[in-house]
Amino acid sequence: MSQFQINNKQNIDYTMVANSFIDTFLSDANDAQIKIYLFLLRHMNTPHMCSISAMADFFNYSEKDVMRALGYWERKQVLTLSYNDKQELCGISLCSFTESSPKVPQPEPSTVPQSQVPLVKTITYLSKPSAFVKPDYSLDQLTEFKSRENTSQLMFIAESYLGKTLSANDIRSLLFISDELHFSFDLIDYLLQYCIDRGKRDFRYIEKVAISWAEAHIETTEQAQNQTMKYDKDTYTVMNALGKNNQPTPKEVEFIKRWYQIYGFASDVILEACERTVMATDKHRFEYADRILKSWKDFGVHHKTDIAKADAAFVSSKKKTSQTTSFTKNKFNHFQQNDYDFDALEKELLSN
Fold first, then answer.
1. Is 126 left (phi over 0), alpha (psi -120 to 50) or beta?
2. Which range has the worst mean pLDDT, 166-170, 185-189, 231-235?
3. Looking at residue 126, what DSSP letter applies?
4. Is the pLDDT of residue 259 over 90?
5. Domain covering 19-125, topology
6. Distance in angstroms (rounded) separating the CA atoms of residues 291 and 285
7. What secondary structure letter does DSSP report for 89?
8. For residue 172, is pLDDT > 50?
9. pTM, two decimal places
């Protein structure tokens, strides 16, 4: 097959894409992920603000599609995501590509005009600058930090949580959290536990959480516990699924903790119950969802795939019951949303 050369005769603005990005990531990314990345490149350093909903509308994607694409690039360390104290996305930072990126054959320098070599920028997008910036600590500063009385114990705890030996950059992060953010030993211990419990072992993520706590003026473990309970991601996921935009009340948090911790359901099962609840009623939604989830727990539902069996079993039991009663038209189904007797359930809830 013949070869060809690509020439440029367009007199238009450009969006620069790093060669190392194309060489390393392009083949594995899907269409949505590539489109979202190019959108970020196009709009970096522009004066107007953006949002997840605007990006979703632009591509005719759902907001979840956009967040999944952003999450993919964050896992690939192409960008980092910043969240405010309400766990709302407030910043996207595109990262430089490191020397560890896979190498590919490059053309001879003479064939690539210097003016066409793309620049790789580290930018912050949609993000308000933080008041806390990690200094570029020297080796002497790291040595001094490691010589402190509590540092060896702190490093031992961190290595135990993370399951690895701390690198120099990891130690720099601990020094930053200790000296710049002024976190106590106990607060750093709780910070590490909090992040590890959520499956986050990267110190970049740990730093972001620490900065968000510092910006919220959190100084004690108790304040951090109250904050994490108040703004837990699972809590707001359920709140949104039930159509609730308010800050969760203690009673609502109690329901959500019950579903996760006592009933032991995963998010997909809980969100299925929430979806059925929203389709069924606009009143007493937490109580309604709790009845559904308790029924599934009693039936032995463990995974979302078990729900269909529970639905079928309940329909079968109702058919048998209907054969022995004259009230064959008064069906109440705890599982299938189309068979709910909404008025009866609301009366039952109000009477409790």
1. left
2. 231-235
3. S
4. yes
5. Arc Repressor Mutant, subunit A (1.10.10)
6. 10
7. E
8. yes
9. 0.36
Residue 324 identity: T
Are the C-beta atoms of 178 and 192 separated by less than 8 Å?
Answer: no
Give the single-character DSSP code of 328: T
139-219 and 19-125 share a CATH fold: yes
Check whether 132 has a pLDDT greater than 90: no
Whether the CB-CB separation of 228 and 217 falls below 8 Å is answered with: no
What is the Cα 209 distance to its own chain's centre? 12
Q: Which amino acid is at 303?
A: H
Ordered by start, the domain boundaries in the chain are 19-125, 139-219, 234-351
- Residues 279-325 pLDDT 10s: 998 889 999 999 999 999 988 998 999 999 888 888 887 777 666 55
Q: What is the CATH number of domain 139-219?
A: 1.10.10
Query: What tokens appear for 106 in the block?
Result: 């490059």
> How high is the pLDDT of residue 47?
58
